[in-house]
Amino acid sequence: MSHHAGSEKTYGKCLDCSRQRTAVAWCKNCDIAFFRDNLRHWSSGNSKIDEVIKYTQLNAKETIWMEGPRWNLDEEAEVWSCTGPIKIILK
């Protein structure tokens, strides 16, 4: 896959908020809003762990996974082929 300078891969619009998605099947805006609204009602039972989970969910980062996921298996050769590079979300 070749990349042109200044070109960015697009992932379509979010079905909920109609904003441009920044990764495959993920809308940063909707995801943050969902966790902000729902995490206050959730608990692991340990307040320190809860704070770490809340922080990491609300501050997710985007990065590029150069190799990408292993989606296709060549059964004869017993080799997986990767589909990278792909933008992913670190949580």
Which strand order do you get reading across the main beta sheet? Answer: 1-4
**What portion of the residues fall into strands of 2 or more residues?**
15-25%
| Relative helix content | 25-40%
Outline the biggest β-sheet. 2 strands, antiparallel
| Integer average pLDDT | 76
* Helical/strand content category: alpha+beta
Gyration radius, to the nearest Å? 17 Å
Number of strands: 4
Q: What are the segments in which pLDDT stays under 50 over at least 5 consecutive residues?
A: 1-7
Number of DSSP helical runs: 2
Instruction: Describe the global form.
Output: extended
The N- and C-terminal alpha carbons lie at a distance of 27 Å
H/E element order: HHEEEE
Keywords, please?
alpha+beta, two-stranded antiparallel sheet, disordered N terminus
Secondary structure elements and pairings:
Elements (H helix, E strand, L loop, with lengths): L27 H11 L8 H12 L2 E5 L4 E5 L4 E4 L3 E5 L1
Antiparallel strand pairs: 1-4, 2-3
Could you walk me through the main structural features you see in this protein, from its secondary elements to its overall organization?
This protein is an alpha+beta fold and 91 residues long. It is built from 2 helices and 4 strands. It has a domain at 31-90. The protein has helices spanning 28-38, 47-58, and strands at residues 61-65, 70-74, 79-82, 86-90. The strands form 2 sheets. A two-stranded antiparallel sheet has the order 1-4. A two-stranded antiparallel sheet has the order 2-3. Strand 2 (70-74) and strand 3 form a beta hairpin.
